[in-house]
């Protein structure tokens, strides 16, 4: 990839991230953009994003595939894995070969390997020393995360983090917890709606989410509201 091409891709990704802030702010949509752009820019096979709830427990808020969502969910439930370590330390955790971490993470590592992932790199979502979550990038090949990719990934995560906190005018941790809890509740509705769409339209979960998100964007409606309408059978996708 040439320098100019890489620069153009990075610029376009930040534009798309900024565009997700236009109109009514939607945390889940912003985080999905962050995960998607990370895959595009950083040569990843999939990405997942976890945010801490009001009890400090990481929950899956966005993922680019059902495989990465499964692995992230198992990691969250086990309370152990690269994303958990990244969140706890506030520093990037880069695993060049997941196969070497089976003893360290007996739940996460086998799950990731079973889904075809061979390396993983977790980048913290942080601001002013406070870490609110982490971005996981999965790759199908082994290998380190180079310094350029690490810097770009951190910049994307930083922009998203600052956007979340500034948009909601978060100044105290209690307000932050309320916002994150609202996002988690929205995600539950979205997962339920995906199941309804997949069942009624006989499509897989990835296609169900694409339909849900495309409808939300086309009608400039929050994903959670569209999901609620799907669940209540007010609309069919």
TrEMBL record:
PROSITE patterns tied to this protein? ANTAR (PS50921)
Keyword check for Transcription: yes
Keyword annotations for this protein, in alphabetical order, are: Kinase, Transcription, Transcription regulation, Transferase
> Which Pfam family is one of those matched by this entry?
ANTAR
Q: Does the keyword DNA-binding apply?
A: no
Q: Which GO terms describe its molecular function?
A: kinase activity; RNA binding
User: What is the name of the protein in this document?
Assistant: GAF and ANTAR domain-containing protein
- Read off the Gene3D superfamilies from this record: 3.30.450.40, Winged helix-like DNA-binding domain superfamily/Winged helix DNA-binding domain
Domain (ANTAR) spans: 170-231
């Amino acid at each position: 990839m040439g320098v100019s091409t890489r620069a153009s891709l990075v610029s376009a990704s930040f534009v798309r991230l900024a565009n997700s802030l236009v109109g009514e702010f939607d945390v889940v949509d912003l985080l999905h953009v962050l995960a998607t752009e990370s895959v595009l820019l950083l040569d990843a096979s999939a990405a997942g994003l976890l945010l801490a709830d009001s009890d400090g427990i990481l929950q899956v808020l966005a993922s680019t595939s059902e495989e990465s969502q499964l692995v992230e969910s198992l990691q969250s439930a086990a309370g152990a894995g690269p994303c958990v370590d990244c969140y706890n330390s506030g520093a990037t955790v880069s695993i060049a070969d997941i196969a070497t971490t089976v003893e360290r993470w007996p739940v996460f590592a086998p799950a990731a390997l079973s889904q075809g992932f061979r390396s993983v790199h977790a980048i913290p979502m942080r601001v002013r020393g406070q870490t609110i979550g982490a971005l996981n990038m999965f790759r199908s090949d082994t290998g380190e995360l180079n310094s350029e990719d690490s810097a770009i990934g951190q910049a994307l995560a930083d922009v998203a983090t600052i956007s979340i906190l500034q948009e909601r005018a978060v100044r105290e941790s209690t307000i932050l917890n309320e916002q994150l809890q609202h996002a988690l509740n929205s995600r539950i509705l979205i997962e339920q709606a995906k199941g309804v769409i997949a069942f009624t339209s006989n499509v897989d979960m990835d296609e169900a989410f694409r339909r849900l998100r495309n409808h939300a964007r086309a009608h400039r409606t929050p994903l959670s509201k569209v999901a609620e309408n799907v669940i209540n059978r007010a609309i069919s996708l």
